[in-house]
Amino acid sequence: MEPLKGKIVIAGPCSVESLAQMRQVxxxxxxxxxxxxxxxxxKPRTRPGAFQGVGARGLAWLKDxxxxxxxxxxxxxxxxxxxxxxxxxxxxxxxIGARTTGSPFAVQxxxxxxxxxxxxxxxxNPMNPDLELWIGAIERLLAAGVPQVWxxxxxxxxxxxxxxxxxxxxxxxxxxxxxxxxxxxxxxPSHICGSRRLIxxxxxxxxxxxxxxxxxxxHPAPARALSDASQQITPTAFGRLLARLKIKKANxxxxxxxxxxxxxxxxxxxxxxxxxxVLGRRMxxxxxxxxxxxxYGVSAFQxxxxxxIVASRTEAGVRQGLxxxxxxxxxxxxxxxxxxQQEQAGDGAPRExx
Length: 354
Ligand code: PEP
Ligand code: MN
Known about the structure:
The chain is α/β, with parallel strands linked by helices. The chain has helices at about 20-30, 55-70, 80-90, 100, 105-115, 130-145, 170-180, 190-195, 200-210, 235-245, 255-295, 305-320, 325-345, and strands at about 10, 35-40, 75, 95, 120-125, 150-155, 185, 215. The protein folds into 2 domains: about 10-245, TIM Barrel; about 270-345, Chorismate mutase (Chorismate Mutase Domain, subunit A). The protein is built from 13 helices and 8 strands. Helix 7 links the parallel strand 6 (about 150-155) and strand 7. Helix 12 (about 305-320) packs antiparallel against helix 13. The longest helix is centred in the last third of the chain and has 41 residues, at about 255-295. Manganese (II) ion binds near residues 14, 217, 227 and 228.
């Protein structure tokens, strides 16, 4: 049985804790037809006092549990020693964790250790929202001849306080897919959410965005888990989640859908053209203003005026049903472009003589 039609689902505990725990979770998960059983044995914890994983002895437990139900097993690696031990234990799939992806030296060392190994590797996004770093790690593995590389979106650590442990910032995995369209892309809602309650919505959102699958943390007794207790779910909750998730199609051939979509897209094309025309006219007015500022030696940036724009535009935007944060970000971009245009017109700092 395929748990979600056409999708790859990897599940298992955050950490391998014992042989009994792994066998129990493997038995509970196997009937759902998952693609692989996960479990970390080296845990990159933020603080040294936290549980650091059971180490290499856990690899035998992971493999034994997978074998007992006929499932491939997946484990995290962060250095060449980990790779070597995983290969010795017949671990079928490896993943590179978020903290490692952000370190090109570590990724290169892992990639070098994988030369000739023929195991698939999943690359989680780096902790920080840096698409190039993520792509760089993927490229290092591909260059080492890793036969199958998959990307895993697990959210990003940002300065903003949100409901999530790691902000999803969907734009980044979507940009990754635009840049590397053939690369399978999974979502890891557990590490995005940090709390079980948020997982169904994020998992559904990933499927709505046509992700190729999910990686989920499932533990036989989440409350007693030695790591990431608040985001792990029981096998029963996992089953309920799978049953509720809806797979969306990339398209529909139904006439009613196609007619409406065509009309609505035409309307949107027209509105976008209007938006751009208005922005163009706004920038032309900015250039006019800049002529007067130049003439009278006034600076391009006017803090008082900017404050007033932010307040009034946010209020007007909210009245139009837009999010205040969205309106603020739009006007930050508009303002940056206005300053750039004024500088180009000769208002900026003196340039190096060429
Ligand atoms: C994990 O999968 O348990 C893990 C440590 O993930 P991440 O690297 O995404 O934090
Ligand atoms: Mn975890």
